[in-house]
Specification:
The protein has one helix at 31-38, and strands at residues 6-9, 13-19, 24-30, 46-50, 55-60, 63-70, 78-81. By secondary structure, the protein is mainly beta. The chain has one domain.
């Protein structure tokens, strides 16, 4: 399984900026929805399918947030939390 980056947000808003090389699905999910994703069930996310870069997704919420980037080929991407 690929390494999924995460950020423990103490509160307030959290933004992730992702630089893509190709069109990709980019999802930011909380702990509960990450577990649903891992088990192959439907999950709720912030994000979607993007063909332009950079991608910026902002959420509000305390807890661990996971960044899922699926480009179908395992290509690398760069990301930054803020």
């Amino acid at each position: 399984m690929m390494n999924i980056p995460y950020y423990d947000n103490p509160g307030g808003s959290l933004t992730v900026t992702v630089q893509l090389q190709h069109q990709s699905d980019v999802f930011l999910v909380d702990e509960q929805n990450y577990q649903r994703y891992r088990s192959g069930r439907n999950f709720t996310y912030f994000g979607g399918n993007f063909s332009r870069t950079p991608v910026r997704i902002t959420v509000n919420g305390v807890g661990r947030w996971y960044l899922i980037v699926d480009n179908g080929s395992g290509e690398r991407y760069q990301y930054r939390w803020s």
